[in-house]
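SAMPLE LOG
Freezer: B-3
Tube label: C17
Construct: single chain, 873 aa
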Amino acid sequence: MADKNWQAGGKNLIPAQALLCLVATAAPAKAAWGLSDNFAPPSYLGSADPNMVWELLIGGIVVCAFLAAVALWIHSALRKVRRSQLRRNAFVSSALNNLSQGVVMTDAQQRIVYCNDRYLEIYGLSRSDIHRNMTGRELLELRRRRGVLGVTDEDFYKHAGTPEGLVTELPNGRSVLVKYFGLPNGGSVATHEDCSEQRTLSKELASTKQFLESVLDNVPVCVAAKSIEDGRYIFANRAFERFSRFSRDTIVGKRADEIFRPGTTASIEAADQAALTSPDGQFRNEFAVERGSEKRILSSNRVIARNEKNEPEFLIALFDDVTERRSLSQELEKTKKFLELVVDNIPVSLIVERVSDGRYLLANRSAETILNRRREDATGLTAADIFNPREAKLIIARDEAAIKKRGLLVEEHPISTKDGLRLFLTRRMTVLDEAGEPQYLIKTHEDVTDRRQTESRMAHMACAGTDEEFAVRSLDLDGLKEVNDVFGHATGDKLLIEVARRLQASARGGVVARLSGDEFGLIIDGKQPVAGMLLAEQLAETLSKEFQIDGKSVRTGVTTGISVFPHNGADAASLLANAGAALFRAKAKSRGSISIFEPEMDQQIRDRRVLHQDLSVAIKNGELSLHYQPQAMSRHTVAASEIVGFEALARWLHPVRGFVPPGDFIPLAEESGLIVEMGEWILREACREAASWPLPLQVAVNLSPAQFMHGDVVNLVHSILLETGLAPGRLELEITEGVLIEDFDRGLALLRRLKALGVRISMDDFGSGYSSLSYLQAFPFDKIKIDRAFVINLGRNPQSAAIIRAVIGLGHGLEMSIVAEGVETQEQLGFLADEGCDAVQGYFIGKPLPIGQYAAMVGRNGGNAVEPARKTG
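STRUCTURE (predicted):
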């Protein structure tokens, strides 16, 4: 108000001052005029009229007064303008000084005309540092001397004049953003903003964004985000790239219909729309997509991200390839059913009891004989609920003894069944929990009534003091497994009953007993081994006739082993064991064979058992080693055949026996189950060795069907690849058709999972077994290996050449490469090269040798034994 009043007073004062000047001027004039009558100008004025002189004098005074008044008015107006300008300058200066930014202004001569307090504060300067007519470059030099500018003048003006501006770092850790603007009059304005907090937040935001992107890039789940406005992808992680087989640059900025096939696009858009219309902004589903030539099952979860106005802005899609999981789940379910089927049909009774309350949790079908009720009805009951008090007391006491022992308890005791009192061999095994306390009791009951009666009869005949001979026959029923698989186990049980009846009818009074699931025992009097052989032939003929069971025609056969008293044993145990040894030899010959025990059989079995024990020790003690046989491209000469890889082959140098042929210990490992442990060692050692080769050659390893049936072969291969660092594409797994024959669906699922790891799969020994073309149709093998039997006969058997041509044509038609094994001559190599075989393997290319003999081939220096090794072939 004071300012306003001061301004108003100023406006009224100027006319008053002018009027006062005029009055002051007029007053003397009037006085002079009044004195004019008494005043006479001096005579020196000459003849001028005194009145006129006075008038002139008065007029001059008036003019001077007027001019003085005008001058006074002008002076007052200028003072007002100056004051107004000063007030405006003070206002502008106050406003600029209160800005959060530092401001510096220069004129056309680049002289500093203004610098606000914030600028001085930011750089630690004072007003006294800014002298009159200081230029902008001088100010920059001052800052440089003070240590608050680290760039040259040229860089300063170059970068500060860009839209992004220049960021300078101060010694106190602060950051200042400078922007320089030129003015039309040649001057300039520069702003200096402390952006420390903003840069810190930007760095934190960038770091957080990078962290989140890194997390999303490394999660195994596919993640993608798209804008809801136009449906274009704005983000895709690495998993999405790997699955879609498109790069991130290809995906980002495009819609689904620009990337995927129409069917896949329709599924994606339908799921997106469902998420948009969902009340909670989420949608889960599974759908199939095409990837290359195969279909994959995806589990998807879509989430809608909203902005601050709660409007849908982004759609985030998370999905996982569950094809293998679904396959694994189905495989697990099949395995579970398979195990249940095995448990349910083992020829001994199986019961699982909970230790805490003695209740039965599981019983198989064979246990119904002991339980005298359906197994479903026995679940949840105790021994006291099922058996008579006397038997229940005995069973509970023996159960408690096994639990207390915490180990295996084996004993025989009678149990009442619907067929009367039977003698059972019972095995009790306690299962401990994580704390080491008994949790379950597993009991198996094997009906040994017939066996003990047979042994008693044999013992009686052996101890009767007579020279009468008798034969103990061990019979194995052929084809029972196939009957169970095709017609079911109920039909198989009825078949066993009918077989027992025919055996009893043909035994002519001999003792007949069922020893195990599909094995029967007979004791026959008479002149041996003639009587035994005649009966064996008669039984073979009798059992070869069709059985009519529930309207179905079922066929079976029998393989027989015979031991004779007293020549092959003087007691029941020896006679049964030797009959079993003869049966083993008969099975090795062929199904339906009849074999009589010979003393050397016993030695062979003993030797085999010893060899088995030695092999088990050899695996644990590291006595096995690997030899490597080269595989080469098929060319007309050895020199032109480029090495492409090696096959790893197991060798055993026994400390006493010396070199044990693979044909002796590999089948033994297969039969005993040691092949699983041995195969793991071979795979790990071969991958470790191949990973050390300078040249990226392939390494082939054989997998046994037993490794597929017993153990997690997929996880094993995956873990070994990770452990050794071998690239999956360098590993080739050779399988035989036995993998698919045992369980086609399970084998096929496992092969697909192995293929998904990136390893190569080859069919080994093609043509030596069934070699069903359906296997090649069901699974895309990378390679077919022609069995050596056909290669060896080249030049001697025209059919071998025709078969090889057919296999090569078949493989190439299915886009599978062909490898021929057993190449031993130049003629064989030339024939295979002419026919377009892709690769060859055999002694003519190189023998299986330690990898050191092939050092040069794998790229190691100092290897000079390669050529001799190959030429010896």
